[in-house]
Design a protein that fits this description.
Strand order of the largest sheet: 1-3-2
Shape: elongated
CATH topology of one domain: Arc Repressor Mutant, subunit A
Number of strands: 7
Radius of gyration: 17 Å
Mean pLDDT: 85
Largest sheet: 3 strands, antiparallel
Distance between the termini: 35 Å
Order of helices and strands: HHEHHEEEEEE
Structural class: alpha+beta
Low-confidence stretches: 1-6
Number of helices: 4
């Protein structure tokens, strides 16, 4: 998994980002946001964030990590992705884009929306260079706001 661009921020910048998102500062939230901006892979699982917090010296309980992730997802700092096999990933890229999941490696990759074409007949064109292997299935999830 690729690491997100290193965007280390100062503590005041992290606190300001939390406040701008409508979240109160807490030691866990500040540390989690620091981890998201400085080294976690773009697509990660809850255990990855817990390990990053432990590496920062914060012995956060798993429930605290889930609470941070739920808060960040609710305010739009993260996206939560639940795959058909039940695996849950968090994505620090929140703009519109698609994903390719490689089951054998449990790896999630971004696909640029310009590389995907959903045709009027319901067929989908995907980039060939990403499909290096047998396609098991294509799951399409459309999320609407009403």
């Amino acid at each position: 998994m690729k690491n997100r661009n290193d965007q280390s921020a100062s503590r005041p910048e992290l606190i300001a980002a939390l406040q701008a998102a409508g979240l109160r500062k807490s030691k866990a939230r500040v540390a989690a946001l620091q981890a998201l901006r400085s080294g976690l892979p773009r697509h990660f699982e809850v255990e990855d964030l817990r390990d990053a917090l432990h590496n920062q010296g914060l012995k956060a309980h798993l429930s605290t990590v889930y609470n941070c992730l739920n808060d960040f997802t609710r305010v739009g700092l993260l996206r939560r992705l639940t795959l058909a096999n039940g695996a849950v990933f968090y994505d620090s890229r929140t703009d519109a884009h698609h994903h390719l999941y490689i089951e054998e490696r449990q790896e999630l990759r971004d696909i640029d929306p310009a590389e995907v074409e959903i045709r009027d007949d319901g067929t989908i064109r995907l980039p060939r260079d990403l499909l290096q292997g047998k396609t098991n299935r294509v799951d399409l999830l459309v999320t609407l706001k009403r």
